Structures are given as structure tokens and as C-alpha cells.
TrEMBL record, chain A:
It is a single-pass type I membrane protein. Residues 32-285 form the OST48 N-terminal domain. It comes from Brassica oleracea var. oleracea. PANTHER family: DOLICHYL-DIPHOSPHOOLIGOSACCHARIDE--PROTEIN GLYCOSYLTRANSFERASE 48 KDA SUBUNIT. Pathway: Protein modification; protein glycosylation. Pfam families: OST48_MD (PF23358), OST48_N (PF03345). Component of the oligosaccharyltransferase (OST) complex. Its main location: endoplasmic reticulum. This is Dolichyl-diphosphooligosaccharide--protein glycosyltransferase 48 kDa subunit. InterPro entries: DDOST_48_kDa_subunit (IPR005013), OST48_MD (IPR055459), OST48_N (IPR055457).
From TrEMBL, chain B:
One of its GO terms (cellular component) is endoplasmic reticulum membrane. This is dolichyl-diphosphooligosaccharide--protein glycotransferase. Pathway: Protein modification; protein glycosylation. The chain crosses the membrane at residues 20-41, 120-139, 145-163, 175-200, 206-230, 242-267, 273-291, 303-327, 368-387, 394-412, 418-437, 511-535. Its EC number is 2.4.99.18. Residues 22-425 form the Oligosaccharyl transferase STT3 N-terminal domain.
Amino acid sequence: MMNLSRSVALISLFLLPLLSFSFSVDNPTDRRVLVLLDDLSLKSSHSIFFNTLKSRGFDLDFKLAEDSKLALQRYGQYLYDGLIIFAPSTERFGGSLDSKSIADFVDSGRDLILSADTSASDLIRGISLECGVDFDEDSSAMVIDHSSFSVSDVDGDHTLIAADDLVKSHAILGKTKIEAPVLFRGVAHSLNPTNNLVLKVLSASPSAYSANPSSKLSSPPQLTGSAISLVSVMQARNNARVVISGSLQLFSDKLFRSGVQKAGSPNKYEKSGNEQFVTELSKWVFHERGHLKAGSLVHHRVGETDEPAIYRIKDDLEFSVEILEWSGKRWEPYVADDVQVQFYMMSPYVLKTLSTDKKGLFHTSFKVPDVYGVFQFKVEYEKLGYTTLSLSKQIPVRPYRHNEYERFIPTAYPYYGACFTTMAGFFVFSFVYLYHK
Amino acid sequence: MATLESPPPGTPSAMTNAFGTVLSALILLLIGVLAFSIRLFSVIKYESVIHEFDPYFNYRVTQFLSKNGIYEFWNWFDDRTWYPLGRVIGGTVYPGLTLTAGTIWWALNAINIPLSVETVCVFTAPVFSAFASWATYLLTKEVKGSGAGLAAAALLAMVPSYISRSVAGSYDNEAVAIFALIFTFYLYIKTLNTGSLFYATLNAIAYFYMVCSWGGYTFIINLIPMHVLLCIVTGRYSPRLYIAYAPLVVLGTLLAALVPVVGFNAVLTSEHFASFLVFIIIHVVALVYYIKGILSPKMFKVAVTLVVSIGLAVCLIVVAVLVALVASSPTGGWSGRSLSLLDPTYASKYIPIIASVSEHQPPTWPSYFMDINVLAFLVPAGIIACFSPLSDASSFVVLYIVMSVYFSGVMVRLMLVLAPAACIMSGIALSQAFDVFTASIKYQLGRSANSKDDAEDNTSTNNAPKDDSSSGKTDKGEEVAKERPSKKGKKKEREPADKPSVKSKILKKRALVLPLEASIVALLLLIMLGAFYVIHCVWAAAEAYSAPSIVLTSQSRDGLHVFDDFRESYAWLSHNTDVDDKVASWWDYGYQTTAMANRTVIVDNNTWNNTHIATVGTAMSSPEKAAWEIFNSLDVKYVLVVFGGLIGYPSDDINKFLWMVRIGGGVFPHIKEADYLRDGNYRIDSEATPTMLNCLMYKLSYYRFVETDGKGYDRVRRTEIGKKNFKLTHFEEVFTSHHWMVRIYKLKPQKNRIRGRAKKLKLKTSSGLDSKPAKKNPWI
């Protein structure tokens, strides 16, 4: 017994660093997730979603949003790698949590799933605003669609929407196509089109609009058509990922299980697309997919292996970089034909597409341009759904040395000849002039 | 001419001669010691440190040279300046100074005197000013005898204008270039006086050293041709002139083309064309004299018309070709600095970067008094002395002073070229005056003294009376007559042309005898004048010109204050930033940042790329966000500004700011100077324009300034600042030196997230980064 407990202690001692650094460069998938609920009954009403997460190895920590002991970090260390906020109506978090600490949580590279709903609180709106998502300012408004609602919408106000306008990205939504429409009942939000960090994953149809379903429209709705986003994702510059949904029901067991038939469509599905959609999205947001890492940029002259401190103009060089993709369990070679390298000095002098050997190594070779200066090898890889790779390495390029020019130029031979004949002629002339009587 | 030989050895006169030689050697040695030691005030009062801006670059280059050798230096591509363009140091630097100091360092090390490179650099300038005063002695001796030479050397040893550029630590090109300049002139005059090909070759080598050392070599290559032309026009052509000039042009041009920074400019730019033109003319003239010699006068008249017409035709063709070449270049083949010398308003009209440098401004009248002091009064007397009689050598000195007075009037920096000329002239004037007065006294004290006068003539000063204009004429006549024999017997002609003719006129001195009392009073006055000059020079050396500008001091009631902010902040940079970080500042501080902090800079004092400097100027004149984008596109991590408002340091960035606006606006027209001026006045108080109050330079200078005294009172501009409480959104303060003279800011990284744009939520007030991705900016 003593032995056992000792060995357990020993194991946990070894595991401790693994646990505390589980979210790291080498293992980008989140492990410890805090779930904030405004009602513990959500735990059972959304159990399918939580169970899929648990089955994928996540360690879920359910807390009430008002819990006064809430804390994201202790002694400056974050306790969680991910955060799920299913508390749309919470006005104030308990403990030390507020919208700023959640923004800091994201800025530290950690991930967030945030779901609002109708009558979402200012707190929730504030957090989503920090992430670049603007919810409809009318707190009682919902997304209404009179043409692509779900026929199972019993209330008749066409707020249960069967949306099928999904973003086309294997990285975000997986390789399997989501056939069934996704059921959505909730609040609309919009994105700033110039904001290149946020992305609509699930958009409303062109006939949708955002209004209070229980009252008459007095003025034209502000949010209409496909400008309405139902579910959006944000990937921050440090590759922290955020999912923001306008509907909490989207994640619920009820909508997971319900069948769906879009109004005006003959196709009837036994099961809505919600489960597949939410599962795939959670894989993306918790870095189980679409996470790239690059090794260092390697370059050398053709025929050499060591990296030089400086290149000369017109040198031939070889360049390579290793890019790996996280599969959720291990690093696998990334395969793509659109990775480019720039040889850059204020503007790219060389822009080449790298070829891959399918083992994760991307390489190319090119000639240094006939311009000297301090150049950079730059790999700027921004692909939809993937983490952004931004690598650069500085390398100076020098002009020819004084003895690297050609010593004798063939075209100048007449001049060399002229030079020497003149000298010889002068010598002969002087000799004759001085000694000829 | 060579009618009188110097007395044979053994006579009492020869003994006095020998005594005089030893005495003058001793005096010269003392002058050298004086020249060296008067420049040590900066080391004694401050410390042995490199001064100002450019010397730091030269010091860095010298370090590189001593570490890596001459070939590496020649091929040095510096990737730490002008990021990201880099600079080919080896091909763009005048290597003379660096090679000199490097050689000295190497030689000292070779004989086991392990001085540091810095020590050698600090003391190079004083050592070379001793050389320069000896060179002045030689030059003046060639012109007017050794008495004038000693006087001129003594004057030059302590002329404030030269001291300002050659105190210990002022390790700049001029330190060795002035010596090279005077020495080249000396060798030219020596060749002209002797007609020796040996000196002509030496002259070309000295010219080569000058080309290596300083861009001011164009002064030589224009002044000497002008003098040659003057000699030809005034009928003073002689084979000696030919020997002095022709080899210099050929060898000198070939040697100059060897210096990488000059290269083909030696034959391509207009600065050098005068020498080629005169080269042609002197050959035509030589041909004419030759033909005149071999033909009978009748035939000669026929030949003259023939030769002159052909010569003119050739000249016209050459001139036409040159004009065509020059016209094909937009600036007429002149470099900007040369053009601003010819047309003083050129720079201010077209090239603000040249006009912005304070040493390129025209000097004020007080600066003449400050820099050459009593010499200004003695120069006219010296010029008159040079005209009695006018020899080849003295006409050269006159031409030299005339040209240098003009150039010094255009650019305050060229006072430095004027100073040696003024010293030579004043030396001549002083020595002549002393001669006249002492001779008068002697004459008055007793007729017998007259015989002793001969002894004094080892100085061979020219005390010819003013009415002796005929002597010049006879000289000329003799020279012309001597043309033919001199062709065969060049060696006999070695004796200086003037000395004997002077001696023959000693007897006429009586005409210039003054009354005893007048002589004594005048002598005393002259001595007082000299004393005044010495006092002024010592004061200038000790107080005005010894400050290293990297360390400042101020004397106040509670003692001496030392402002060592520059080194403090460069040390901060070198200890707290990454080696490859880029630091942006106005170009003045570029050399110091690379040399002292070892960080990459965007622009520096070698203002070779106007666009790059304009980019930095534009960033400084832009509002914060635009500036951030410009700096970010240049990979800048830190921005350094110099601010004197707290302690009243006037040459800070706010005072230089209008130049940034002008230079920036010259390339990027959206920056307009008028936007920064209120009714044409440059002001930073509450009346300042919004553009001014929002530009980066204003914000970085005055950020948190109000916290110092609660009012934000700027002691340089003597006003309260206009905008007191503001925050920086794209920059953060990382370092401010003890007296706030240097402030360093770091560029904030891009925001991790982009906020939404809902306005009604009252939660937030500050606005985030604009959504436009920063990489797409118009500056690349």
C-alpha cells in the first residue's frame, strides 16, 4: 500500500509538469476547460455536447457564472486552457472574472466558446465586442426568416431557422460535408467586413432579418439578409481561437436530436446538422485541427550546407522550411502547394512558391537579386481556418568584393594593347632621342 | 637672377646662418608642442573621449580596420546602418583618416606600445595639427622666407578655427586634411620655385593623400589650375610652372581615381574639368614658347597666327564636348554641395538636406572674429606685402586667400580652409612689420648696425620698399629672357627665384626707415596684438571648442552640472534591446547609435539617400498611427528622440523639426510646412496648429512632460507647451534619461484582436487599431 501510494505520488510528480504545461507549443490542443453556466440544468440539457468533449479527453470544470470563487488564474498561472461561457443572461461574473480578464485570457493564446442568446446581457455583448462581434443592439430581437425556417417550428413565428450557409473550409468544419441544415434560434450579430480576423461560419439566408418577433415592425430592421451572422469564429493574431454563437439552443440536446426539414425544401433529415457542426467547430476551436507549426527557416548556398552570415549578389541559394500540422494527437507533415517565400527588402524582390516533399519539408532555390542590402526571408502563410504562420529571418546581401570582378575583360584587350604599346613606344622613342646622334 | 650666391661657408655670416637654422628648428619644435598641447584642453577638462557625431563613425571604421585588416575594410558592407539598404562603407568613405590612424595604431603596437584604438583616434588630430603648422612654415618660407614662415606656423598652431576641428577627440577628416592641404600647396610652390620633377612627384602623392582624406580636395584641383592660368595670363609662364602643373594633373588624376569613393568622378564630374582645361592651355602655351624659341621673330609671327588658330580650334572642340557632356546631366555634373558653393542660395532652394546642416550655413560676422580673430586685420597687410614684389609663390597665396574668403562666406565649415591662408598672410604681414621696425630701430641706434643687417638676412625676408615696383618688372623681364637657357640647365635653376634679387636691394632700405619712437611704439602695439591673439586662442581652445558635445556641462551657483544623458541612453540601448533591433531617430544620432549602442539605424549622418531620410522625416511629422505604420514597415522597434525642454538644451529635435518637415515634404508632398506653422511662426504653445500638436515628434518629446513641473514649461522655447495631457496609443515609453534629454519609445505590437464597432455600449472608450492590416501601407 505504501509502495503504491508512493508510486502514485511519483507518477503524479512526473505528470504535474505535463499537466501544468499541457497547453504548449508541442501540444496545442486544450485539455482543461472551464465551463461557465448561468443554470446548472444546462449541464444536462446540453449533455451530448459536453459528453463529446469529455470523450475526446477534455477535462471539463463546470461552474456557475455567479460562483464567487471563480478564477482563471492563480499565482499568475492560468488554470485552464479553454473557456466555454454558456451564461447569456449573466450580468456579472463571480470572483475576479470580468470581460477584461476574459480578453486577457484570449490574448494569452487560450480559446473561448461564447454563446449568447436572446436578451443577452451587456457583459456577454461586451466580451463579444472585444472579439470583433457586434450583437444586435435591440436585446429582444431574434433572427426571423420567413423562407428558410424549419418546418418543425411550432410557434409559427419563424424564429427556428434551418441554416445551411456554412463556410467552405475543411480546416474549420472537417472534411465530411454537413448535409442537414443547422437549427438555430437566437440573436443575430454582424461583423466588420474590414476585420480580417473574424469569419462567419454560419450565415443567415438573404431573407433573414433581425427583429422582435412578438411586436410589430415599426421601422426597417437594421440587420438583414446575409449580413447576419449566426455563428462566427475569430482567430486572434496570436492564434487564440474564439467561437461566438448567437444561440445557446444550438448546442442543446433537443436541437441535436430533432429532425429537420427546411421550409420549401423536399429534403427531410432524421437528425439536424447541429451535432456534427458543433463537434467539428469545437475540434477547430480547441486546436485539434488546422494548427500549423513551422521549424526554422533554413537557407544556404547551393552546394553548401552551412548557413552563411552574408550572401553576395547573384549567389544561388537553397531555402527550406518544415511545416507540420497538429492532428489532435501528433504532429503530421503539412501538405499544400500554396506556401510562398519572399526575399524581401521593403518589397519582395523574389516571390517563390515552395514545393513540398510530402514529408513536411517545403523547399525552393533561387538566385539572389542583383541588389545589395539587408534582406529578409519571409514566409507569411495565412490560410482560412489555419493558424497564421509569420516567419522571417534577416540576411544581408553584399556587393562584389574588389577581387570578385573579372580581372581582364575580353572586349578591353585593344585598350590593354594600346596601353602597353604606348609605353614601349615611349621607351624606344626616349632611347632613340637621347642616344641617337 | 642668380647673380648673388649665398656667402661661402666659414664666414661669420654662415655661422649666424647655422645659428638661425638651429634656432628656427627649436622654435618649430616648440610650435609643434604648442599646437599639440593647446588641443588637449578637452581631454583635461572632460575626458579622453571621441567628440560629436562624425568622429564616432570614423572611430567605428577605424576599429573595424584595426580588427579586420585593410581588405576587409575596403570591402566592408555595413548592414547596421541605413536599414534595410545597408551601406558599402569601403566604397563610400574617404579612407585617409582611418588608414592614418590605423597605421599609427599598428606601428605603435608593432613597437610594443599597446595604445587602444580610441586613444590613437583621440590624439590623431592634435598630432596632425603640429604637422600642419610645420607644413605652414614650409609653405610660407617658400613664399616670403623663414621669418614669415615661423610667424605663420605659430599663428596656425593656435588659430581657433582650426582648433575647433582638431581638438583631441575631434577625430574627423579635416584633422588630417588640413595638413594634407597645406603640404600639397607647399610642394606645389616648392616645385614652382625649383622646377624639380622630384617635388612634382611628391606633390602628386601629397595630393593623393588629400584626396584620400577629404572631399575638400576639389579646392586644390581648382585652385592650382586657377593659379596656373593666372601665371600664364600675366605672362609668368615658365618651364617651372609646367613642371609644377602637368605632372600633378596626370599623376594626381590617376591616383585620385584609385580612391574608391572618387573613382571615375576624377574624370567625370565638373569639379575636375578646370584642371583638364588648364592642362590643355598650358600645353598650347608651352608649344608657343617652344616655337618662339626655335623660329626667327619673323617666322614666329607667321607661326603664331597658325598655332593660335589651331590651338583655339582644338580648345573650342574640347570645350564643346565638355559643355555637351555637362549639359546632359541635370545638375550640370556638379554635386549638390559644390553647387551650393557656387550659388549660395542653391541648397536652400533645392536641397533642404544640405541646407539643414548647421555647418553648411553661411557664417555670421562675429564668427569671423571668433575664428580668426586679429588675423582678419593682418590679412590685408599680408596681401599688400605679397604684392611687393609679386612672385609666382606670393601670387598663389594671394589667390588662395581670395578664394577661401569667398568659400568661407558661403559655408561656415570652410572657415577651416580660410584659416591657414589667413595665418600665412598674417605671418607675412607680422614678419614684414617686425623687419621694418627692428631695422629702423637698428638704423636709428647707429649707422654701424647697417652692416650687421646682412646677417639678419638669413631669414631672407623681403623688405623691399613699396616704391620698388620696378623690381617686379625686371624680374619678369629676366625670367622671359631666361627661358631658353633654362631649358638646358634646369638644375642650375634650383635656387629660389626671389631671394637673391631681394638681397641686392638691401641698400635701398633706408627709404623705409622710421623714427625710433614710432618704431618702438608700433612694435609694442604689434606685440600687444599678438598677445591678445594668444589670449583669445587659449580661451577659445579651453572654453569654446573643447566641449565634446556628447557630454555637456553647465556651471551654476551650486556647482558644476554634468549632463551625460547621451551615453546613458546609448548604454541603455545596448544593454536592454536585442542585437538586431532597429532604432529610428533623426539622422544626427545615427553614427552615435551604431558606434555606441551597436544597434541598427535607419538613417545616419552620411546623408546619401534623401528619400530614406525623408521617410523618417515624414514619420516624425505624421500623426501617431501613420508614423507607426511607416516605422513598422521599416521593422523599427525603437524610436529615439532628443528633447532639451527640461534643461534648456537648444539643439534638440523640436528645434530641428522644421527640417524634418521640409525634407519629408520634399519627397512626400502630403507633408506641408505651412500646416506646422501658425501665421508663419513656428510655435509649440497653445497657439500651435493641430497638425503640429498631433505629430509624432511633438508627442514623443512632450509625453508626460507636464508631470515634471505641473505646467509643462519648455525652457528652450520659453513657453508652456500647447497640449499637455495626452496618451500614446501606438508607442510606449521605455526609457527617459536622467535629464530627459534622450527619450526612447518602443513601437507597440499590433493588437491581438480587432474590436467590434458598436458605439452604444458604454463599456469601452479607447478605440483599437484600425482594421486595415498594417502590412499594406503605401511606404513600401
